Amino acid sequence: MPTALSPQNPRLGPLRELLEPRGRRDQGRFLIEGPTLLAEARRSGVRLEALFISEDAAARHAELVAALEADGVPAYTLPDKALARLSDLTTPPGLVAVAELPAATAADVLARPGPVLLLAGVSDPGNAGTLVRSADAFGAAGILAARGGVDPFSPKVVRAAMGSLFRLPVALVTADEALAAAGAAARPVVAADLTGEPLWEAGLPANAILAVGNERHGVAAFLPRWDRAVRIEQGGQAESLNAAVAGSILLYLVSRRA
Known about the structure:
Layout: E1 3-4, H1 12-16, H2 21-27, E2 29-33, H3 35-43, E3 48-53, H4 55-60, H5 62-70, E4 75-77, H6 80-84, E5 95-100, H7 106-110, E6 116-120, H8 125-137, E7 142-146, H9 155-161, E8 170-173, H10 175-184, E9 189-198, H11 199-202, E10 209-213, E11 228-231, H12 243-257
Parallel strand pairs: 1-4, 3-4, 6-7, 6-10, 7-8, 9-10, 9-11
Antiparallel strand pairs: 2-5, 3-5
């Protein structure tokens, strides 16, 4: 049975800090919110430190709460207002868990088979989460995420990734670290760029590092160089594709050629 917790409990202050990048970085933890994501986290073997729930959510999701408690996750009930302070949503679902940030390195990611997605300064959380989801769907080895871009473990990215973030290793990198790791692993860096060769003619290798850049400034805003560049030819009048759409197309094509 969950333990009732006072809204004034001192452990809640540090949890509220996890809504911000600095808090996640300093504590090495992040938040997972809602029954669907919590069920995905459990299936994926994510280690949950604690579960915080409203009394109403505890009743509505009794089976999930019982399963998490059986796994050894301590559960605590909070009043709705106190629990809402652990969420960035207008209408919180009433369940929030704390999880340890994974500690993958670039070498860990590149040691796995398959293409790698490089979020080269992507700043939009929805785009980042969708790209992580596509990477999972199309068999990518993992994710390299640019330091200074969107935090891959922010609540919005976690939601948009729909559980895929729990199944793929993610490493934060600087541009120099990304290029050095790519060289050490003998993997080519392929940038999505309007100046590149047509994608359908490119013949991308299955071990490529696919770099998708900032929505406004492209890959060049993060990477000083790359091995190849490709562009997705368009027949319509749109100036360019959304970063998530472009990256998903690249991931799909590489998966089909693997």
